[in-house]
Amino acid sequence: MTLKLVIIGGGSSYTPEIIEGIIDRYDQFPVREIALVDIEKGKEKLQIIAGLATRMVQKANKPIVITSTLERRRALRGANFVTSQIRVGGLKAREKDERIPLSYGALGQETNGAGGIFKALRTIPVLLEISKDMQELCPDAWLINFTNPAGMVTEALLKYGKHKRIIGVCNIPFNMRTGVAEILQCNVEDIEIEFVGLNHFVFGRRVLVKGVDRTATVVERLKDPTNQYAPANIVSEGWSSTFLSAFMMLPNPYHSYYFKGADMLEKNLKAYWENGTRAEVVQQVEAELFKKYENKDLEEKPTELEQRGGAFYSDAACNVMTSIYNNTGDVQTVNVQNNGTISDLPDEVVIETNALIGASGPRPISIGALPLSIRGIIQLMKNVEELVIEAAIKGDRERLYQALLINPLVREEALAHDLMEDLLEAHKEDLPQFYQQA
Amino acid sequence: MTLKLVIIGGGSSYTPEIIEGIIDRYDQFPVREIALVDIEKGKEKLQIIAGLATRMVQKANKPIVITSTLERRRALRGANFVTSQIRVGGLKAREKDERIPLSYGALGQETNGAGGIFKALRTIPVLLEISKDMQELCPDAWLINFTNPAGMVTEALLKYGKHKRIIGVCNIPFNMRTGVAEILQCNVEDIEIEFVGLNHFVFGRRVLVKGVDRTATVVERLKDPTNQYAPANIVSEGWSSTFLSAFMMLPNPYHSYYFKGADMLEKNLKAYWENGTRAEVVQQVEAELFKKYENKDLEEKPTELEQRGGAFYSDAACNVMTSIYNNTGDVQTVNVQNNGTISDLPDEVVIETNALIGASGPRPISIGALPLSIRGIIQLMKNVEELVIEAAIKGDRERLYQALLINPLVREEALAHDLMEDLLEAHKEDLPQFYQQA
Amino acid sequence: MTLKLVIIGGGSSYTPEIIEGIIDRYDQFPVREIALVDIEKGKEKLQIIAGLATRMVQKANKPIVITSTLERRRALRGANFVTSQIRVGGLKAREKDERIPLSYGALGQETNGAGGIFKALRTIPVLLEISKDMQELCPDAWLINFTNPAGMVTEALLKYGKHKRIIGVCNIPFNMRTGVAEILQCNVEDIEIEFVGLNHFVFGRRVLVKGVDRTATVVERLKDPTNQYAPANIVSEGWSSTFLSAFMMLPNPYHSYYFKGADMLEKNLKAYWENGTRAEVVQQVEAELFKKYENKDLEEKPTELEQRGGAFYSDAACNVMTSIYNNTGDVQTVNVQNNGTISDLPDEVVIETNALIGASGPRPISIGALPLSIRGIIQLMKNVEELVIEAAIKGDRERLYQALLINPLVREEALAHDLMEDLLEAHKEDLPQFYQQA
Amino acid sequence: MTLKLVIIGGGSSYTPEIIEGIIDRYDQFPVREIALVDIEKGKEKLQIIAGLATRMVQKANKPIVITSTLERRRALRGANFVTSQIRVGGLKAREKDERIPLSYGALGQETNGAGGIFKALRTIPVLLEISKDMQELCPDAWLINFTNPAGMVTEALLKYGKHKRIIGVCNIPFNMRTGVAEILQCNVEDIEIEFVGLNHFVFGRRVLVKGVDRTATVVERLKDPTNQYAPANIVSEGWSSTFLSAFMMLPNPYHSYYFKGADMLEKNLKAYWENGTRAEVVQQVEAELFKKYENKDLEEKPTELEQRGGAFYSDAACNVMTSIYNNTGDVQTVNVQNNGTISDLPDEVVIETNALIGASGPRPISIGALPLSIRGIIQLMKNVEELVIEAAIKGDRERLYQALLINPLVREEALAHDLMEDLLEAHKEDLPQFYQQA
User: Fold this and answer.
1) Which pLDDT tens digit goes with each residue over B66-97?
2) Cβ separation D246–C377 shorter than 8 A
3) Do the Cβ atoms of B359 and C211 come within 8 Å?
4) What is the dihedral of CA C263, C268, C273, C277, to 10 degrees?
5) Omega cis (within 30) before A371
6) Distance, in angstroms, between B258 CA and closest chain A CA?
């Protein structure tokens, strides 16, 4: 068997990171072909990335063939692993996801609030098509999805698609573990964080260092705001003593949007007035990155890439693939079907949780009941996600309105309505399911 | 057996209503003694009420003896039914529950938000003492609780008390049914609303008229803002078409605090600037009521009483007692232990639901899974309630902070902290459980 | 609207009972047309019954038209209620269900053991066809099913059919209530038994007389073997003191097959050697009944009919229909979808339980967790039923073998195999789903 | 820290096996002291074992100190690990557990049927005392329980004791894995069997070889009766093709008692008539073993020991202890609290399942819903266990009778009564909880 990896959204500026990850793991995970796939609009970027990727494997002296194509179905044939990092509508769409809520004084973000909801609406149908193709063309291949909102997308595919070999990954748990290792000054390998919850709404219930519970120590040290583990894209000043002592768990950086919303809104508005939306900033960053990538002398991932919010996503993805390939059975944090792991959530939803990763796929470690302090809020967030998924699949405006209203970042009857109307209109082209029958 | 009813908080301005209810139902529910109980501070009011009550039964020519006492334990001996309508700390405390949140730009109310949480903290320990006395002195008696927040209080008693003959009642479902009868122009007896949810967070999932589903009609008519069923104390302009069509259920008036919070806040602030808090308004109204009550010529419940928010509470209570006494087995809406009725909530929590009322107590009609549109928000609200109850019983500041933060009307890390500190300090005297060991 | 009732299996010897029930309830339930439907083989019986039924309504002087037909679909058009009391394969098939297990020294009966399993296999596909016709021809009509095994049949229809207006009824709860009234010497109307469990495996958890718990008294009196409530077809000597005191619940007569199996087997074998199977006895009884029915002078249900095991089935059915028609909302014991009523069983299974019966259908009273003493055995029996239903729908031999093996009346690997092979062969004609693709 | 192991029941004939296990693992699990504890009656055996153990460690040249004592509490002080392999009432009691049921024509065995139930009744109170001592004297120590019935004992301790560091182990999963490795001719390390169920009622749901599903192959090969994995004490001729194909899972040897009961009864009766009960055979074997153990030249575990049914129990125990000590995080099969791992069973019960074993204890891999084919029978068996535990703790005859009656190996009203009376009387001395208040 020749190990073949397909990267959907291969023209992404993040791709060099995953290429580096594959090169670094070549001994345990000997990929022989990497097929980069993108759409017509991304053609130019795709070629730039393909060029850089080819130089990278040559420099590293690995027998990996890099191909690039706009024909997804051709690429999928014979694949063993597929990764997805697409952005339906591009950064222009993200800009709208952010700007329109901000214009109403509401937080919108590509995974949270109204922005995240609309990103899900655009993305889910496209990924469902991809999973359908996989079921037909490479039924044994695993899809490692890190397209955001990763939890909702993974759940939609597992609920509505036939292809079941799907794992969602996120860099946040990875970041948190790395951050905690720094805080405790110990090896990241010795640390296990018991993650409970949902993608971008996950808590670290316990920190174990070589099996010894160090949660209280980490919580105590987090009271010092210089001890943080936030990714580059979330500006956070940390958490109050009261919060940390009351919950005695590790929040994740995205919790700021929910529990420190006023602060976050202020910061986002300020940043917006100064630099435009995060999407606009990112477009700028991307343009510069691609300028670098084009440089024929560049034969490695440039360090600038690490400063983006998504850094380590590809590490998370490469680790999962390597463990499946080698049937390692080590513990990693992934997005998988709940199936009783958390007894307070329905079986068929997707959770972010620790699981053994091996050739038969992920097997989550049982969690049982959620801590009382976070049970309700996690149930609420999952409910929002389920409503969004139904809306995305069926083009159902009622479900969409319900999701917006119930979402803690919207919550107002009139606001939910206005955001729904404006964002539907703004994304009309990328939301055919809402307009087909009108 | 001589049928004896004890009214805890007998000096309340609402008591004439319950007296009237007892008189009206005398043929089916022949109470022979009504013992009015209050505390030292309420002595004067108690006497006024006792006087009025005596005149009322005389006028009605019923052989009911009215007694009044400050000795609760003496009154409880031999009781068959006990009702509770107390207000620990009085309207002065309510004023703080409202004013302090408003001063932070947050909604606080006696059953919602930080105000409701602190009312629960003050009330639960006192009612637990009452239920303990009942277990000792009148173990077969039923406690009909309409002390707010009625759901939380009932849950706390059922979870932490030994006396299990406890039913919580509220006037909201009663109001909604009456309101729907008007909207549909039909007899209230022909209407059944399938209530699902929690006290002050209940939805009408279906409206049946003689068993025929008329939900869509009622929802449609609610789009006309003149069709309302809100009690006197909640100023509401109704719900948008979008909201009503999307949920296809009947919201209750208190939902405005959650889904139309901006509006409600604005209105509450305006009212506050003009007239002070609702508590202050109510103090005024009460003073006037008691002036009337003192009038020796008054031999009936004055009509002004009906204009208060709590109207029909006593109707709800009297109906429950009459059905228990006669083993009627009719359907009423009460607060009882879930015990599987709603499968998405824990067994031991209290829900507001339709139940058969008979001599063996309430037996809820099975509901099953909550509608997807409201599942998460109901789970969240219940979680808040559970945290509050733990805080109230144990004087646990961590639980209290969690409850405040998770509550949708607070939700901000810093605000939760400030409200907690200010309100704890303000209610210090009535919250010994938080200070005993300091 | 002209109220129309269709009786599928109208040629059954039980039909006069249901005719009588309809006549007796005419004032509250004014049926204008009763269409008797049967298959070709039952043509002669159908005509005899139609004749008798016509004489009965004439004698009673009610304006009810009796029709009879072999064309089921024609009859269903315009129906408001449909009852079903069919026997696929006739008494000949029942004879095999009983004889073949007995020949292996095992209990087989038309609702229990291997016999009941095979009756389900034959019956479910036929009733599924009927419910399909109803969905098309009379979508608002209720199917009141008393075809045995009533629980499994009802569950299969609700799981695999589109027509959801289906209620299963059984005479056992009716018998038990009547029997308990006699034991307590009080009016049957004053008695409520809290039934929990499954059809033919239901327990009476509590006996309430006017709301007062009299369970202990009834259990005590059942220790006297003359106090019984078994139907005519189950010879039982009652239960031991040890059993009754340990469970403190009312067993139903069919429990004898499970907890007194040795006794029952002995009695069944003895009866078999003396008179052949119960099926053969019944054939004899039926022949005699039909001789009577033919008599043009007979204008009433003959009393002999009451001595059969199924007596009161039609009372149960008529009560349900009358309450639906009048939206009565009284409590009756029916077979309905669990949907959380018993929290230890899956949502989609059918249970036998107390429910309010009204125009919108049955609404079960919440039960919560099963008593620990019977939880496991009820879960086991339900599991057997679920396996049987899957086997019946899909013609799945693996599921059938599992069901037989897990069934407490079989339980032996080799016996399960032999019974499966022999009974499949014996009923080959009536089990096309197992042979279609062979 | 000096690693100290306490062996309760140190005078058992199995002890040399665990001593060998400790010696073999010395490099990873450097035990420095093994304290053998037994009761007065076992004094002589204890000394023989202590002598042999001392010779074994000397031969192996390991710095392990062997001590022996009758004072349990003294031994427990400072312990890191405690194992338990006691037999309350000794083999004489086991003899009664087997003989009395057989005398009624029923299967009784030390873990199944009435025999297993009574072994639990005798054992649970004693182990509860041990766990109480541990909580006081060595609160951080882990109790590795392999006293049978291991599942029920572990559940009783976790439910009713304060010491929560308790893991139950059994040799059956270990045997099955070894047996499957032989059947598939591959390394045991490469095999993982997904075990679901209860101790002695566990199924192998899937067999993975290096992550690849080989279940169907193993099931196919098990049809050849020479491919077996039964321990020495269960004579089995394997399973029929029908059974294996229908369930498509691996049964465990004890399933023969339930699904091949007639066979097993016949064999047990035959063996009984020839050699007396298994208990009597074992007494004979033990006498011979101890004769060998006394021999001063013996410095190793004699091979005869492996031919007993309990072989590998100590391997299972040593593996668990080694992984806890080293925080290994490998997957082993243990008896732990369910806590949602199997969603069809209550949270607080104990299941036998695969778990990661590390310093923080066992963390089970989530299972979700049980396969439909075995759901009910596992729920039934667990219900029996819960009833037995309640009976054992409270000396409750009602619960005991319920457990016996519901148990598939008893199931008859009269038999349950007779077995209860005879066995209670026979074990009177060891069942003080049933007689204390008489």
Assistant:
1) 999 999 999 999 999 999 989 999 989 999 99
2) no
3) yes
4) 180
5) no
6) 7
Tell me which of A178-192, B210-224, B256-270, C227-241 is least confident: C227-241
Mean pLDDT score of chain D: 94
Cα R_g (chain C), whole angstroms:
21
Q: In A, which residues are within 8 Å of D340 by CB distance?
A: 340-343, 366-369
Residue C383 has φ and ψ, to the nearest 5°, of: -60, -45
* Axis crossing angle, helix D15-24 with helix D43-60, rounded to the nearest 10: 20
Quick one: pLDDT at residue D382?
98
Q: Which region among A7-11, B34-38, C267-271 has the lowest average model confidence (pLDDT)? A: C267-271
Please say if the pLDDT value at position C124 is more than 70. yes
Active centre residues of A (catalytic): 254
Where is average pLDDT lowest: B134-143, C184-193, C263-272, D392-401? C263-272
Amino acid at D401: Y
Quote ipTM for the complex.
0.95
Q: How many CA atoms lie within 13 A of C256 on its CB side?
A: 21
CA distance B370 to B205: 9
Residue scoring higher pLDDT (A310 or B419): B419
Distance from CA of D63 to the nearest CA of A (A): 27
Provide the pairing of β-strand A4-8 with A212-213: unpaired
Residue range D212-244, pLDDT digits in tens? 999 999 999 999 988 877 665 666 678 999 999
Which residue of chain C has the CA closest to B190? C327
Which of D366, D367, D370 to substitute to test the interface with A, most A CBs within 10 Å? D366
Distance of CA C266 to the CA centre of its chain: 25
**Coil, strand or helix at B427:** coil
| Residue of C432, C317, C351, C389 whose CA lies nearest to C124 | C389
Encoded tokens for D7: 């062996």
Compare all CA atoms of chain C with the CA of D405 and give the residue at the minimum distance.
Answer: C259
| pLDDT tens column, C23-50 | 999 999 999 999 999 999 999 999 999 9
List chain A residues with CB under 8 Å of D342. 340
